[in-house]
Amino acid sequence: MQFMQVDLTVLVAYQLSSLSTSQPRVRTLVHREFLSAANRPLLLATTDIRTPKAQQIANSPSVEIAWWLADAQEQFRICGTAYILPSPDFPSPDDPLTGGTGKLGEKEREDVVDAATSLRDSFSKAGLAGNNYDWESKRVETFEAMSGHMRASWARPVPGTTMNSYDTAKEWPESLPKLSEAEGEEKRLVQRAMRNFALVVIDPLVVDHVELGVVPNQRTLYTKKGDEWQAQILVP
Predict the structure, then answer these.
(1) Which of 10, 47, 66, 218 has CB 3.0 to 4.6 Å from 15, enough for a Cys bridge?
(2) What's 15's domain CATH number?
(3) pTM value?
């Protein structure tokens, strides 16, 4: 697939759209890596398992990506199935899943935990990259490769919950070391962050590729049929 040849020497991000109960929801997601299993190209991203996108994907795993590469003047629209791998330890029995102004309500907490359980089951049944691939090791490896600032982001209150003041954020950890380097209170915070950290794996089914950097412009639609990809030329 051509989109797996994207230059990743600079940080790249795409817009991921999922479905809530009432409307589409879109957000920017940082692309981490391409993975491949035979004819099954996969896109790897990350998320906080406590975010609404996790519950949305648990309810409806069909997603669409809009990816614009300005330097190359190329656009990819990718329709596929999203899978999220939470930590096997999420949540810990004593974790209150604290929001910005206090604990999540009982119903909200149940929704987060139920979504994580559903996503974990779906991931194990998907057979992504073959049954011998150690996805939990990949999750830990990806977390450890993050910057200290990013690792700290998963140890903060639940994203999207309310705050009384922006000054509240001054109390949050700004940076966290790798687990192997953490001690004392920092180690507890890193362990919390790792519990909230999840992989997002997107299995493409349709890729609409528009090339505006060539004249005449070109547009190709790639559709997955079984284990094969079929290409069809379209009017740009």
Answers:
(1) 66
(2) 2.30.110.10
(3) 0.91
- Return all residues near 21 (Cβ < 8 A) that are at least 6 apart: 59
Long-range contacts of 145-150 (CB under 8 A, 24+ apart): 147/175, 148/175, 148/176, 148/177, 149/174, 149/175
224 is in which domain, residue-wise? 2-234
Show pLDDT as tens, one digit a residue, over the chain (236 residues).
565 665 555 568 999 999 888 789 999 999 999 988 656 789 999 999 999 999 999 999 999 999 999 988 999 999 999 999 999 999 887 676 766 666 678 888 889 999 999 999 999 999 887 767 899 999 999 999 999 999 999 999 988 888 889 999 999 999 999 999 999 999 999 999 999 999 999 999 999 999 999 999 999 999 999 888 999 999 99
Question: Cβ distance 183 to 77 under 8 Å?
Answer: no
